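From the pipeline queue, job 12 of 40. The input is one protein chain; the requested action is below.

Action: predict structure.
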Amino acid sequence: MLVLVRQFLKDSRHTGAIIPSSSRLALAMTRSVRSGKHPKRVLEVGPGTGPFTKPLLRALLPGDEFHAVEINPTLSNRLETRLLQPFRNAHPEISVELHCAPIESADIQPGFDHIICGLPFNNFPPPLVRRIFKRLLELLAPGGELMYFEYAGVRAMKGPLVGVEGRRKLKRIGATAKILSRRHSGKRKLVLGNMPPAVAVRLTR
C-alpha cells in the first residue's frame, strides 16, 4: 500500500486511490474472464499494483493473450518484476505483454474479448474521458466486454469540494457514463466489500 500512497502524492490525477482494490471488487471485475471462452485476448488498463491482474493471470490458459497498459513507470516496473515476468517464466505458452504508455497511444492491436479498466475517470477532464472510452471501445472485439469501476457516490461526494467548474466537469463525466450505458447495454453491480464501496460497470460492443 505504501507504493500507492507515494504515487498518489506524486500524481493524484493518474493514481486514483491509496488503498488497493479489494478481492471482492477484483472478483466482480474479472468474473466473465474466469468463465469465458478460450483462446481469448484480455486487456487490462491501469493495473496499478495488480489487484485485478492477479485473478486475470490465474484465468489464463495456453493460447490466451494478455496485455497490460500502465502509464506510471514506477507501477509498471513493479508489475513487471513482481507479477508478469514470473508468470511468463512459468507459462511460456501464454502471451503476456506490458505497455508503459497512455492507453490512447499504446501500440496494441484491436480485437480484445475482455477489457478491464481501473482508470480513475472522475479525476480526468471530460474530453479525455471521452477519448479514452472511444479508444477502449475501438479495441474491443464485436461481442466483447468492457469492465470499469467507480466509487459509489463519488461525484456527489466530490461536488461540494471542487467548486462550480469542478461540479460541471463531474456532471459531464456522469453524462458520458449514462450515454455509454444506454448505447452498450450497461449493467452495474454494487460491491460493498471494498473501501470505499464501488460500482462495477459492464459495457458490451
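Job complete. The domain at 22-204 is CATH 3.40.50.150 (Rossmann fold).
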